[in-house]
Amino acid sequence: MAGEKTSKLPEAGQWPDRLAAVLLPLGAVVSVIGFLMAFLYAAPVNGASVEGVELIGGQMVNTKLLISQKIFYFHMPVALVSFIALAFGAYYGARFLATKQQRFDTCSKIAMEIALVFVVATMATGEMWTRFEWGVWWYWEPRLTTYLVLMLIVIAYFILRNAIDDFERRGVYAAVISIVSLVDVPICFMVTRMIPSSVHPVVLRAGGMSGDMGMTVAVCMVGLLMVAFGLYRARFRQVRMAERVEALKELLDE
Predict the structure, then answer these.
(1) How many Cα neighbours within 13 Å face the side chain of 196?
(2) What does the pLDDT look like over 53-70, one tens digit per residue?
(3) The whole model's pTM is what?
């Protein structure tokens, strides 16, 4: 009986957890490289500054446009990483609905935590871009609006989790919201194709980005993915260790 109870304890750790200590600093280094590439390698200017307005590569560029254009190399990758994290949150939420295993609820919750970090980063960089480009902090544009809805859904996920004490009911409701948040992801991604907007042009298409721009975005994307995965594994280990301690306390009390 004791062996059966012990086998039900949450695992103390898994081999991917050891990658977190490597991926976090490595991802930070790659992200810094992407930051330098944005200013020193990618178009429209290779690290130069402009006085007033200048014609560079067939485009009229001023200092404000130069700065806002560099935000793109981080705004787009953090948005894509947020979508990936939401996909994992919904996947594990669906697994929890099918099995009612606490491990899947934990995986979904942590994925949603990582998603929230990158959703907020997406909104912050987007607002900086909006302020630089159009002189306002907010613009009621299709993608901005749908992404705002997505952020509110993710925030609602955590409000709901903190409002319900019963484990199974909390997990079921949270799983449903994680799946609903994923439904909004393709809407956010495709809305500029369904409702064309000069504010959010389509860049993932032929001719949307030059080679140097694509390379810079790819480097930033790889770095941020490493950071996201490292954060996920580090947080997963922390939560599962706490769950294991609680389970051991319950066994000692019996």
Answers:
(1) 0
(2) 655 555 555 555 566 678
(3) 0.81
